[in-house]
Design goal:
Helix content is about 60%, strand content about 15%. By secondary structure, the protein is an alpha+beta fold. The protein is globular.
Length: about 180
């Protein structure tokens, strides 16, 4: 149910951005909003509190976001507040991003490594992924030392797990499976 609702809101925002010829601006500002959310999770929880009136919440949005974000973002946040859907904001942002990339015919590829990739390697990897998927790609790189080494790539429903942790996990599963077969 949450997934369907968030998709409806993201679709509505996407269509409004297209209609107002503000798609690029909306995409960029939503990326900024996502960063603000990550840094200030408690603030967005305040917008969900039932003890704060609707008018107070809208006033907060106007004061906090009115000067830094376009009206399309502020109006959208107000709608989420009015409909008591602020808790969906994370999912809506993800869904909007997916709509944007589909519209632009781009494929978002998430890459996880145990260490920072140098720029040259990142560009070669991006080119190779574009070749493999036969589509222009947008790469999002994150670092997770728990994978020990190697690389983890996720693009829509395709996953390439060439991490040391993944290999060790598969070996462990194979050993446990083999052990149960022997008995």
């Amino acid at each position: 149910m949450i997934e369907i609702t968030s998709k409806r809101y993201s679709q509505s925002l996407f269509e409004a951005a297209l209609d107002q010829k503000k798609l690029e601006l909306t995409f960029e500002e939503l990326a900024g909003l996502k960063m603000v959310m990550e840094d200030n999770q408690a603030f967005f929880k305040v917008l969900e509190y039932p003890f704060i009136t609707l008018n107070e919440k809208i006033k907060i949005v106007n004061e906090v976001f009115g000067k830094s974000f376009d009206t399309i973002i502020c109006d959208f946040l107000k709608i989420l507040i009015e409909k008591d859907r602020v808790y969906l904001l994370d999912e809506i942002l993800e869904d909007f991003e997916e709509l944007y990339y589909d519209y632009k015919k781009l494929l978002k590829v998430r890459i996880t490594t145990a260490f920072e990739l140098d720029e040259d390697y990142r560009e070669r990897l991006k080119s190779k992924l574009a070749e493999i998927f036969e589509q222009e790609v947008v790469v999002e790189v994150s670092i997770d030392s728990s994978i020990v080494g190697g690389i983890y790539i996720k693009a829509k429903d395709k996953i390439i797990d060439a991490t040391v942790k993944g290999k060790l996990d598969r070996m462990k599963d194979n050993l446990l499976y083999d052990k149960t077969e022997v008995r």
